[in-house]
Specification:
Elements (H helix, E strand, L loop, with lengths): L24 E5 L8 H7 E7 H14 L6 H7 L4 E4 L6 H10 L2 E4 L10
Parallel strand pairs: 1-2, 2-3, 3-4
């Protein structure tokens, strides 16, 4: 089975004629496989946020989406999210530590869990 996509971002909308783009994109990565056009989305996004499990996907899947590159650390550093947010029950400790050490902001909402008293 093969999949082909001609995914295109809509053109930037300009303001009242001065030519400055006013359209901005946010990329939110959930705990699902990344589509093959993810690097394009990444390049156009102004902010990049991962749900906790989405950080695992970013960490793992971007390597597969950049097969022509062989610098694993370079790929992972280039695709560093601005924020990882969630209850932190899905993110692997190695992934959390990696992005934390690069300076990604971590928003830990684990205190909101219903099972915190269990």
């Amino acid at each position: 089975m093969a999949h082909c996509s001609t995914f295109l971002l809509p053109p930037a909308i300009t303001d009242d004629g001065n030519g400055s783009p006013t359209t901005t994109y946010a990329l939110i990565i959930l705990n699902q496989r990344l589509p093959r056009f993810s690097p394009l989305l990444w390049d156009h996004a102004k902010i990049r946020v991962c749900a906790d499990g989405g950080a695992n996907r970013l960490f793992d899947d971007m390597l597969e989406l950049c097969p022509q590159e062989h610098d694993v650390s370079g790929i992972r550093e280039r695709y560093m999210p601005d924020v990882i947010k969630g209850d932190m029950d899905s993110i692997r400790p190695d992934v959390l530590n990696f992005y934390q050490n690069l300076g990604t902001k971590i928003v830990d909402n684990s205190d909101d869990q219903d099972n915190r008293f269990a």
